[in-house]
Every structure is written in C-alpha cells, then in structure tokens.
Amino acid sequence: MGMAVVLSTMPEMLERTLSEHVADGHDRCQACRDANGASAAWPCVIRGVAEEARYIRNGGLPGARHGRHHSPAS
Q1: Cβ within 8 Å of residue 18, ≥6 positions away
Q2: Per-domain boundaries in the chain
Q3: Residues 50, 52: Cα–Cα separation, whole Å
C-alpha cells in the first residue's frame, strides 16, 4: 500500500503535513532540513505525497492525480 493511501486515512496527520511542508519564499521547504540545516527544494517529496493523499481523501483514485493512469495488469 502506498504512503499516500496510508496518509489519506489519517486526516490530522495529513493536515499537519500540508501545513508544515510549505515554501519559505526561496522555493525551499520550511520543514525539510538536513543535518547541516540545508532545506529541500519545494515542493518536497513529502509535500507531493501529502497532495496525493489529499486527492485520494477527496475521492480520487490512487495514482490518477495529474492525469496519471495505471494500466490494468494483463
């Protein structure tokens, strides 16, 4: 099961993630910092997962956000 699917079932965690992983005005994520204090480019990977989780929570199919569609297995 994908991380976005799991996160979509935890509304408080989802909202917290979306509120913390925001741009800092320099196209860097305010929440993602490495040991040296450098931040990740925004949108960060975690923000992307949270956006997918919000899409799923609102009724979207996993993997279908932004026009992506998974082909059924043959």
Answers
A1: 47, 50, 51, 54
A2: 3-21+29-62
A3: 5
